[in-house]
Amino acid sequence: MASSYKTLGTEDVTVTRTPLYENIPINETMVTTADHVKTFSHRMFQSVYDYNYTLASANHLFDVSFGVSPESSASLTYNISDLSQKKNTYTQMSQVLNGYDTNNIVKTFSRDASTPFNHMFFLSFSRLLVKDEIRKGSFELELGVEAVYANKMDKTILIKDSSTVINSGPTGEWSYLYATNGTASPLQADNVIVGVIFYQAGIVALASWIFAKFDATKDELDVPAGTNLHQHKHGILSSGINYVNLDSVGAGLTTYILEKPITDGTLATNTSLANILRDRIVSITFHNTTELNSTIYFCRINGNEYNYSANPTFVDSSGKIVVKKVLADSTSTYITTVGLYSSDNELLAVGKLSEPIKKTADQSLILRVRLDV
């Protein structure tokens, strides 16, 4: 316990924020290996782990789900399996991430006022990976879009966020996701908006048209039965790709397009749709962010302060200061520890110096103590 104290003034205390970044790589093996993926009987989403999910050492990476907007005419036209689940998933995500408009109506996901995202994949990353938030401008998802399933990774697209166009919502900041050409240039055009990333929530929402061919004459799914549903005016793939063969894990078909599992009553579970997206992920990378809040205390020691120790060994039995060789010598001490006390002298924190610092009457010191929260 200290025998003397020095009060810190407002000029001696400052608060700083320091962001710490960590690179998070998720590769194809992690998301496609069967025992890394936990499927639930409720079929609302899948959970992906970095190892066999039955092992105690496995870490939860993200969940995959799919949602259909209640505003989509496809949800009224087709016999969609688990339609209520898909609508509930979409509405829940909209409520949490987008909030309500001035008429107290849930805002839908959209590229602009006239282009809604009616059918969306949702990737919800675990807090273990995201920490405080995903670093802006660091997200990248590579997807295979080659039409032939056996060669699905031969043509890829890169989906990235923009660190310059940032908006605010109920859960914090968000930005659009843009598709650019990866290998073999399969896109009809570069830098097309294909989804939204929510940084603090750690959620990525992708439009279903990432697997669709562009056709200016057809709307997204909302077309009469019998037409080529794999083509619509918001599709991003070029005419060089007829359609993307989504022979997903466990689907039991050799060839079908995305709209078939969305609308077919026997295939359209969220499990099969999650399989479709996972099966074509080449890699996911981003930087997480940990915000370190620090209070810095500047402990100022003047020349005439702390040159004497309360330690009994500082003097001999006669009261003579041991460290003085002759009477004319000035006293000196070695500072090893700084204690921070409350106003009633209760010890709150202790800081240790890396090595003792000699203190004499002819010098002053400033000790910088950082307390991280």
Task: Write a brief structural summary.
This protein has 373 residues and is mainly β.
Description:
The chain is mainly beta and 373 residues long. The protein has two domains: 19-290, no CATH class; 302-372, no CATH class. The protein has six helices and 20 strands. The longest helix has 15 residues, at 83-97. The radius of gyration is 31 Å and the shape is elongated. The model is unreliable at 222-227 and 248-254 (pLDDT under 50).
User: SSE order, as H and E?
Assistant: EHEEEHHEEEHEEEEEEEEEHHEEEE
Strand content: 35-45%
Mean pLDDT: 83
Strand pairing plus helix content: what structural class? Answer: mainly beta
Runs in which pLDDT lies below 50 for 5 or more consecutive residues are 222-227, 248-254
Largest sheet: 14 strands, antiparallel
Radius of gyration from the CA trace? 31 Å
Q: How many domains make up the 3D coordinates?
A: 2
Number of helices: 6
